[in-house]
Write a sequence for this structure.
């Protein structure tokens, strides 16, 4: 009997994990100079979910539901 109840719980857990499989990744580059911008804060609008660009200007936001998102960028002193 225990195996019968264990299978639906495992399947439910995998279906929950597979629902969050999207990511947003990109590079932040100055349009005029072509330089990669380090330390740019990239956030999904109206949330606290985000990332900071690395020394090559790259960022990635993982574990998102598939869909459309609007990004806000903050770069202090630029």
């Amino acid at each position: 009997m225990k195996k019968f109840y264990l299978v639906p719980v495992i399947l439910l857990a995998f279906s929950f994990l597979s629902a969050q499989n999207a990511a947003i990744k990109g590079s932040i580059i100055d349009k005029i100079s072509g330089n990669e911008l380090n330390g740019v804060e990239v956030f999904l609008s109206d949330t606290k979910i985000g990332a900071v660009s690395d020394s090559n200007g790259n960022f990635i936001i993982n574990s998102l539901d598939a869909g459309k998102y609007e990004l806000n960028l903050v770069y202090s002193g630029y």
Remarks:
- DSSP finds one helix and five strands in the chain.
- Residues 20 and 65 are 5 Å apart (CA to CA).
